[in-house]
User: Fold these one by one.
Assistant:
Number 1:
Amino acid sequence: MKVLAFPDSRRNATRRMHFLNYIRVAGCVCALLLPVPQKNSSADEVTSTYSIGNSRVAVSVEAGTLRVSTEDLMQWVRWASDSVAVYYGRFPVPIVRLRIIPAPGNGVRGGRTFGASDGGSIRIHVGSSTTMADLQSDWMLTHEMVHLAFPSVADQHHWIEEGISTYIEPIARVRAGHMDAHEMWFELVRDLHQGLPEPGDEGLDNTHTWGRTYWGGALFCFLADVEIHKQTNDRKGLDDALRGILNSGGDIRREEELTDVLRIGDQATGVSVLLPLYEKMKDKPYDVDLPAMWKELGVERAGDTARFVDSAPLAKMRDAITYGDTPAPMPPPGSAARP
Ligand SMILES: [Zn+2]
């Protein structure tokens, strides 16, 4: 059963940033390839469908009190679906059943993704006082939908499933024009260090802490992305590897060996990066000088945003990682001008 629980003591972290980060990922406790829970429909339940390419997102909203309208919720569903489709070149599965469950409080409050024979199923809680602005800035639904685009692997590799969702979600939203690139890089610089090994670490396959699962997995993705770009002179990136995996049939409906999946990703880019990096990180601490990497990529923290240094040696790679083949979109409506 692919459910990882993390101790509630994490919620008591003294730094607000850590608290927010815990909330950011703890809501997603993924239970892949489990039977989809059945529930009787409520008389007041609302259902709608969003068609995207050859795929369908079948949305049901359970009865309950919500400040936002069904139209607002469907707009949110479109933003997340489009972000994932832009990143992967298509929506990952033929059909996903999305169940929106009203809950007390504010904001999107936790989701779960399940595999199903014809696609997938997502259950996500939305607080009763959630506003349209909350939905516009939400990351969680996109995170859940990214899970649809990778096969289920053994429990010891859960870090790759969460790492991909954690790393890809903001990039996908930037590429679809739903997040500002400076915000994306600011958050990566702020948060990625939480994936670094701590004393006693035994590698990603053997260290099942919250930090190593979500951000350690994201660190693997980031390092792979940089290395693929380096070895291909920015012609290929992690997006090509992940699209190759998806297009080989590797979505949430399949159970696969991780090494087989990574081999397919390497074949898609034509360079051997994912498997060798996995060998380095799977069973031992693999330390990384992140400040040096931010400097090379030309990303500096500036208050609560990031500043780009275009004279940095890897500034071109930074843009290639951010946008891939997608033209840089206009900033999202209402976003402040960035330096
Ligand atoms: Zn997740």
Number 2:
Amino acid sequence: MSVNLTIPTQQYDPAEIMGALYGPGILGLKGAFTREFAKELGEDIAVLYEEALKRPGGAVGRGPKRHYVEIHPEDIRGFVELATHPWVKAVCETVLGPDYKIVEIGFDVPNPGAENQPWHRDFPAPEDTVKGRRLNSLAFNLTTVDVEPDMGPFEIAPGTQWDDASAFEHEMFPPKEFYSRYEERAEQKMPKMGDISVRSALTIHRGTANRSDKARPVLVLGVDAPGANNHERHDLQVTKAFYEKLPDDLKSRLLCRIVDELEVIVQGHTIEGLMMGEA
Ligand SMILES: O=C(O)CCC(=O)C(=O)O
């Protein structure tokens, strides 16, 4: 008896996704969203940034003229579209497995006058990566502006997510003597509005000096495999009303508190080595 089997097809190739995240440690998708989507995101971030700057401790300094702000999913239009984008879902499922969880949403703003950051990881490599040789978290980035070379592009040293950190300060900051290794490999990223990228936050990277008169705000979405525990550095919150309206498959993806009213986030993810004095 013959059985008619259909060859399974996938919109996004898991081997390509795994190859990129385990190889260079970064992957992008051009035109994932419309320019209008990125523009609205930029408008929402501008409001949130202004509010955060007024609150003591509302924005974390990440170097001169540079901040990070953790936000609430419902503070931005488009959270659902972002979190349920087929590419975002495919990348998360492929690299982190079927039980991945969203643990962080925030944004970085390198302003005019921001300087080169030290090369760094966003947190120390966990045992799962160091000994288990597996990535258990990802950071998605969505630019809200077209990035030009003078706007302090994000710079990354592909393949360095596997570098031994025993000589790094706080297991995150390689000594200056190692910089030639990162500089030789460095790639500057110049995404346009609507593009999205994903990286391991362990791939050594830095924000570069912004010599333009424009800020370069970029959204960050943090996603974990079970057991990665990055949620401990964050405080993802949604209101009951927002949660109830979410698609069912997104509800189970949020590692968050469900609250009656949103609480002000006490910014937790400070990276001491990036402060370099006042932001
Ligand atoms: O400038 C960027 O896009 C990233 C900045 C960064 O790596 C950080 O503040 O940890």
